[in-house]
User: What shape does this take?
Amino acid sequence: MAKVIVVTSGKGGVGKTTSSAAIGCGLAMSGAKTVIIDFDIGLRNLDLIMGCERRVVYDLINVINGEANLQQALVKDKRVNDLFILPASQTRDKDALSKAGVEKVIADLKADGFEYIICDSPAGIEQGAMMALYFADEAIVTTNPEVSSVRDSDRITGMLSSKSHRAELQLTPIRVHLLITRYSPERVEKEEMLSIDDINDLLGIELLGVIPESQDVLNASNLGEPVILNQDCDAGKAYQDAVDRLLGINREFRFVTYQKKGFLSRIFGG
Amino acid sequence: MGLLQYFRQDKPKKGSARLAKDRLQIIVAHEHSFAARPTYLAEMQLEIVAVIRKYMDISSDDVKCEFSDKAEDDMSVLEVNVALPKHK
Assistant: This one.
C-alpha cells in the first residue's frame, strides 16, 4: 500500500528539504520505489539538494496542466535505484497547484507503483503548504530546538488534524512524527537549548528522529548529495535511524547526549 | 571570554532554555484554546449580549461570554455570565 508522507514545519529554514532528500533517499535504499515531490512553487530547491538541477526539464505544474506527462517530468536519481524527483515549477503562479491536479498526480504515481510519495512542503501556511499536506497519510514535522520553530510546528500539527483530506473525510487521522534537526546535546547540557523532552512535552508528537547539528549537512548540500549517503557522519547515521524507525525497525536514539571531552582527547583531538 | 569577565558575577546566564519552555507552554496553550473556537463564536457572542441588553439596562461590560475547551473535559462549555446591577 503506497504511503504519502508530507515533510512540513510551518517555519522556513529548519531542514524540510534536507530531510525530504535524506529520508526519501533512505526509503529508496530500502528497496521501495520512492518519489520526492517539491511543492515549493516558484522557489524550487529540492533539485539542488539532490544534485539533479541540470536534468530538470518539466515540473509538477507542467504535469498538472497536461503540458508533460509524469514520465517526462520525473527525474531519476543517478545514485540510488528506485528514487525519483518531481521538481517544482519556477513559475510564480501558485494557483496552478490545484487540489484536483495534485490528487491526480498522486493517484498516477500510485498507479505507477510508487510505494512512498514524499511531499516536500514549502514554509508557511499558504496554498503550496496546504496542498503538500492535504493528501498525506503520514507527516514528518521538522522542528529546530528553538521557540519560533516549536510554535510553528504546533500550528502546523493543528492543520494536519483539521485541514487535510483525512480530516475532512473523517478517516483515520494523519500519523504525525516529530523530527528534531540541528540538535546540540552540548548546548542542551548547558541549558541553552530546548531538550528533546521539552519539545516532547510541548508538542506531544511521536519522536521519529533527532539529527545533530553538523557541518556535514552543509557539505552534503554543497555537493548535491543527500546527507544520508554519507554514512560516516553522525547526521547521516541519525537520518538512517529515522528511516529505519519509519519502516518499523526499533532503533536506539544516538547523538543525543553530550560526552564531555577528556583532557587527553582535548589535546590530541578525536 | 576574557579572564576578567570569567571571574565577574554577571557572566552569561545559564538556563535560557527554561524560559523558552515556559513561554512556549503559555503561548501554545493559548493558541490551542483559540483554535478550538468555532468561527461563528465572536458574532454569536455579540448577538447574545445584544439580546440581553434589549431587555435589561446594563452595559456591554456586564455581560461576559466565555468559551472553554479544555483537553481534560469531555465537552466544550459556553458560559454566559450576566452581572445584574441591584436596585434598578
